Amino acid sequence: MNTLRSYQANFSLAGRCALVTGSSAGLGLEIARAYAAHGAHVVLHGRHTNKLTPLADELKAAGAQVDTWEQDLADLDSLPDSYQALCQRVGTPNILVNNVGVRLRSSLQNAAWDDIEHLLHVDLLATLKLSKYAAQAMLDAQTRQGRIVTLTSIAGPLARPGDAIYPIAKQGLAGMVRALAVEFGGQGITSNGIAPGTFATESNAVLANDPVKGPLVVGRNPLGRWAKPDEIRAAAIFLASPAASYVNGHIVVVDGGFSITF
Ligand SMILES: NC(=O)c1ccc[n+]([C@@H]2O[C@H](COP(=O)([O-])OP(=O)(O)OC[C@H]3O[C@@H](n4cnc5c(N)ncnc54)[C@H](OP(=O)(O)O)[C@@H]3O)[C@@H](O)[C@H]2O)c1
């Protein structure tokens, strides 16, 4: 019995502080809720106080310790100072989930350059910059068992007509996952990724409701359905938990088998 308890305790996040970027909606919110349920002090993040406050209140009412961080990740210049101020206010997060991701479905020819720059700015550069400062803050705070978990995508390693930009950013993040794993693993911080497949989040509603593309997505998936948003939780808990102490530099694919078919 004691062995079982200590095994289960390996999945507890009690005493940990987790910043989940983009946790006002979608998969980020699912991950934040799961971390709170596993005992973590959670920092919800997004651009809008009016979205974050009621979510924080909801989690607090359920007994969680919660703070919020309002920061537009497109504003790269203010990121270091803003992050430092967050650490001073709530303590240094020892779990960082890089979840924010802007989606653009377009060929290179049809994409406006401003939209391309914005996507790369937010998805790639902001994530890299936040990871750099967050990892340094973990080192300065002498964090052991630091965790960086980055949301990539099954769209990263694949190429599809009409979807040229987003996969470039996501594949860059896959490289970042491995680079951080090598650089920080020996200093007590692991870096891993989660590559979601097709989740029925609000941001996918247009695709899911498309009379042609919606059924194509379902038809190609071995499980024959979209993922429910809460199906991201298990991978996110595992990778942030003590149970994943020897998992470093890898990307867990959560796609129902979509990417192993052709
Ligand atoms: N959904 C899927 O099927 C799927 C598949 C593969 C990969 N992914 C990846 O998983 C992650 C989450 O996807 P999702 O569908 O859950 O996304 P989502 O519903 O669009 O949520 C995006 C979150 O990011 C925040 N955000 C967007 N731009 C921001 C900015 N400039 N600064 C700060 N926060 C910003 C939003 O907050 P505010 O608007 O409140 O500021 C929101 O909380 C993304 O990295 C995505 O690429 C998702």
Helix content: 40-55%
Please tell me the CATH architecture by its name: 3-Layer(aba) Sandwich
Strand content: 5-15%
Uncertain residue ranges: none
CATH level-4 homologous superfamily: NAD(P)-binding Rossmann-like Domain
Shape: globular
CATH topology: Rossmann fold
Termini separation comes to 45 Å
Strand order of the largest sheet: 3-2-1-4-5-6-7
Largest sheet: 7 strands, parallel
Number of helices: 9
Alpha-beta classification: alpha/beta
Number of strand elements: 7
Give the H and E element order. Answer: HEHEHEHEHEHEHHHE
What ions, cofactors and ligands are bound?
Answer: NADP nicotinamide-adenine-dinucleotide phosphate
The count of domains is 1
Give a written overview of the molecule.
This protein has 262 residues and is an alpha/beta fold. It has one domain: Rossmann fold (3-Layer(aba) Sandwich), CATH 3.40.50. Helices cover 43% and strands 14% of the residues. It has nine helices and seven strands, in the order H-E-H-E-H-E-H-E-H-E-H-E-H-H-H-E. It has helices spanning 2-9, 26-37, 49-61, 79-90, 113-140, 166-184, 205-209, 213-220, 233-240, and strands spanning 17-20, 41-46, 66-70, 95-98, 146-151, 189-196, 251-254. A seven-stranded parallel sheet has the order 3-2-1-4-5-6-7, sandwiched between helices. Helix 5 packs parallel to helix 6. The radius of gyration is 18 Å and the shape is globular. The N and C termini lie far apart (45 Å). The mean pLDDT is 96. It binds NADP nicotinamide-adenine-dinucleotide phosphate. The site of NADP nicotinamide-adenine-dinucleotide phosphate has 28 residues, from helix 2. Residues 22-28, 46-48, 51, 72-74, 99-102, 122, 151, 153, 196, 198-199, 201-204 line the site of NADP nicotinamide-adenine-dinucleotide phosphate. One of its GO terms (biological process) is fatty acid elongation.
